[in-house]
Specification:
There is one protein chain. Helix content is 6%, strand content 40%. The protein is mainly beta and 313 residues long. It has a single domain, classed as Beta-galactosidase, Chain A, domain 5 (Distorted Sandwich), CATH 2.70.98.10. Strands 5, 10, 11, 13, 14, 15, 18 and 19 form an eight-stranded antiparallel sheet that branches. It has an eight-stranded antiparallel sheet with strand order 6-7-8-9-20-17-16-12. A four-stranded antiparallel sheet has the order 1-2-3-4, with no helix packed on it. Strand 2 and strand 3 form a beta hairpin. The longest helix has 7 residues. One of its GO terms (cellular component) is cytoplasm. Pfam families: Aldose_epim. It catalyses: alpha-D-glucose 6-phosphate = beta-D-glucose 6-phosphate.
């Protein structure tokens, strides 16, 4: 187990792209690429990778990096002139030299502040002025915290609306051994059935085929239980009422050029999002959305872990 002083280091990553490496004193770490403002690695104190990145991810323009935590803004999905999931995930972000103040209780020494502003290219397809600030932080216990702040800086008095998602790719041992707790009995839009609205019937989500659902008005906490690893991811969110669950399964995975043949077995996207009701900001207004990821050990082999203890913890 590695140990030392917390550190934040700017260095070169794949294809010479700039990335920031965060390391906490007990040995957990995270990597954030300035391309996409995208977290591509989150490791625990044992050096185990907790996020999935495809072996075929390209790490080059104009493609978004396949895996980690892409940021979907100013839209989730595909609509109008904007590209799929918007443009934030395949633009170059900058280190933010004048970040907003955070509450004292949230202060951690291991973080990086990034900022994205519109380019001339972007304003042609989405004609608005904004500042998108992102803080990626590692808490002392190893939790990974992403905080987005989006401000309308239009000078012509126009409001704008957007949808948003932290498209988190969790690394799992085997998709058939995974359960998601906290979304049962909720309404969802099924993207595989032309966004028809249904109500979740199962006691928990398990996976046997392709899934792409947008759950509505979800709780603050969602648990992703990996039976084989005997470990549970806890997703805690604020300002993000919806949650997307996605796995392409075999047929769609084969159709994705930047996705490995059998890699769908080892990933699951559970995404904190704001999709059903777009967020509207008047000039000068700011929206904030936060996602905190952590892991807890699951001391079970027979499926008897009480998810409510995780969800209420």
């Amino acid at each position: 187990m590695a140990a030392g002083m917390p550190s934040v280091e700017l260095c070169r990553g794949i294809n010479g792209l700039d990335k920031v490496v965060l390391r906490e004193a007990k040995g957990c770490s995270a990597e954030v690429y300035l391309y996409g403002g995208q977290v591509t690695s989150w490791k625990n104190i044992y050096g185990e990778e907790l996020l999935f990145v495809s072996s075929k991810a390209t790490f080059k323009l104009p493609k978004a990096i396949r895996g980690g935590i892409p940021i979907c803004f100013p839209q989730f999905g595909s609509h109008g002139a904007l590209e799929l999931h918007g443009f934030a995930r395949n633009r170059f972000w900058s280190i933010d030299t004048n970040p907003p103040t955070f509450p004292a209780h949230s202060v951690t020494k291991t973080f990086v502040d990034l900022i994205l502003k519109p380019s001339d290219k972007d304003t042609k397809i989405w004609p608005h002025s904004y500042e998108f600030r992102l803080r990626v932080a590692l808490a002392r216990g190893g939790a990974l915290i992403l905080t987005s702040r989006i401000r309308n800086t239009n000078t012509d008095g126009r409001p704008f609306s957007f949808t948003f998602a932290f498209q988190t790719y969790f690394s799992v041992s085997d998709i058939s051994e995974v359960r998601v707790e906290g979304l049962e009995t909720l309404d969802y839009l099924d993207n595989l059935k032309e966004k028809q609205r249904f109500t979740e019937q199962g006691d928990a989500l398990t996976f046997e085929s392709e899934v792409e659902k947008i759950y509505l008005s979800t709780p603050m906490k969602i648990a992703i239980l990996d039976h084989e690893k005997k470990s549970t991811f806890v997703l805690l969110k604020d300002g993000l009422p919806d949650a997307v669950v996605w796995n392409p399964w075999d047929k769609k995975a084969k159709a994705l050029a930047d996705f490995g043949y059998d890699e769908y077995k080892h990933m699951l996207c559970v995404e904190a999002a704001a999709i059903e009701k777009p967020i509207t900001l008047k000039p000068g207004q700011e929206w904030k959305g936060t996602q905190e990821l952590s892991t807890v050990p699951s001391s079970y082999c027979s499926g008897q872990l009480d998810p409510q203890k995780v969800l209420q913890g």
